[in-house]
Amino acid sequence: MGKSIANILKSFGIQRQQLSHRTAGKIKWGVITAKREEIVRKVTDIIHELIKPPRPDSIDINASLQNDYGFDSVSIIELILALETEFSLEFPDSELIIEKYENVNQVANIIARIYQSKGRSMEVK
């Protein structure tokens, strides 16, 4: 069973709402249609900012965030919060399993699933 981010936050005595400026049920969608390559680019930019020095010149979208870029559970939480802000969405609890965030491709797939579950279209190239 994967580690739930909600459980990790609870272990620190933090509620998820304390880490986000949005409140439940009030999600603003800034992007109606998103192309997969745009999602991958934005995810890559965010990951590049979160990587501790030395930062690589480029991010391999298939490389392991944990093994290749040193992400731990806290880094994954920071990534999710940054993604929620960047894409103006909230990740459902079903997507808050750390093991789901293996690489950029998997993160982009999660974002695509969230868009689709909210009835938003996404063009895939």
From TrEMBL:
Pfam families the record matches: PP-binding
Gene3D superfamilies assigned to the protein according to its UniProt record, in alphabetical order: ACP-like
SUPFAM superfamilies according to UniProt: ACP-like
Single GO term (MF): acyl binding
Span of domain Carrier: 34-115
GO CC term (a single one): cytosol
InterPro entries registered for this protein in UniProt: ACP, ACP-like_sf, PP-bd_ACP
Protein name, as recorded: Carrier domain-containing protein
